[in-house]
Amino acid sequence: MIKVQTVPPDKAALAARQKRDLLKEIGAKWRKFSETELSGFAVKDELVTQVALLYGLEKSDALLQVDAVLKGRRL
User: Fold this and answer.
1) pLDDT at residue 7 above 60?
2) 56-69 pLDDT, tens per residue?
3) Residue 66 is inside which H or E element, if any?
4) Which 8-state DSSP code applies to residue 71?
5) Cα distances (angstroms) measured from residue 44 to each of 18, 47, 73
6) If pLDDT is split at 50, 70 and 90, which confidence band does 75 have?
7) The whole model's pTM is what?
8) Nearest to 52 by CA among 64, 42, 43
9) Side-chain-side CA neighbours of residue 43 (13 Å)
10) How far is CA 73 from CA 7, 18, 21, 44, 67, in A?
11) CA 32 distance to own-chain centroid
12) Would you say residue 50 has pLDDT above 60?
């Protein structure tokens, strides 16, 4: 029998995958953003501001929606 050793993904690859998945969720929720725009968001406040502007929401409403998508995760 051959024993296969699994190699844990390194932290950078894991973080990149998590960010990619999060950006996919954001893109699915707010389809007006291009991939370029999505990849440009560095902090939550930028996303909140753009969601509010693009979708005509009050900033407080946009914040609630963004928080619901982020679920405590960071960009």
Assistant:
1) no
2) 999 999 999 999 99
3) helix 59-70
4) T
5) 15, 5, 10
6) confident
7) 0.80
8) 64
9) 3
10) 25, 9, 11, 10, 9
11) 15
12) yes
Q: Which residue has tokens 């929720």?
A: 29
**Identity of residue 19:** K
How many residues are there in the chain? Answer: 75
Whether the per-residue pLDDT at 11 is higher than 90: the answer is: no
Amino acid letter, residue 14: L
Mean pLDDT, rounded, for 4-33: 86
Token pair listed for 73 = 């995760």
Question: What secondary structure does DSSP assign to 7-64, as a single string?
Answer: -PPPHHHHHHHHHHHHHHHHHHH-TTS-HHHHHH--SHHHHHHHHHHHHT--HHHHHH
3-state secondary structure at position 4: coil
